[in-house]
Target: Glutamine ABC transporter permease
Amino acid sequence: MDFAGAYSWPNVRYLLEGFLVTLEVAAISIVLSFIIAIVFAIVRYMKIPILSQLVFLWVEMIRNLPLLLIIFFVFFALRDVGIKLEIFSAAIAALTIFESAMISEIIRSGLMSVDKGQIEAARASGLNYAQTLRYIILPQALRRMVPPIVSQFISLLKDTSLAIIISLPELMHNGQVIYNSKSTYIIPVLLLIAIMYFVINYALSIVARRLEHSR
Model:
């Protein structure tokens, strides 16, 4: 094991560049997933005819597929129908598709957890359905669903490593490039990668626990 050589500044900088890509892909995917998930959850919660059934089928299908398959489909299969995405865009698209389905179920469960009596009271006070959803249901539901959503975001951050299969220059990819250059770098590089993942994910888990206790 060559820790000194593995931890030379060029290697560490290369890992940090990959880690930055990991964080960028995760951040963009988190934002897009959350927006889409809210729409999906509200459509299902409101039981909009036909549309809610279509969203249900889509969410259930995506939730029961492996993320790796979705990454392959987005990057390779879509090219056969003329949709060619760059590696960075394909990774974000695949993660967004998968995570939006997962997060939508968390949000829908949060919406369903709001006491029906409060909804009836809001409607009786003159609020229409949209106002009740905005001012009564969503604020309460969001507080309850924040911890599980943060946990899902942690999973998303770890899932970015699967994009190594399409050569996204993220943390795992760059680490592989380094330790492929010299076999004595394998353990030191993987150890440093593990520490990087642990630090960011542990920080997020602390946030999730604090949010859970503050409810």
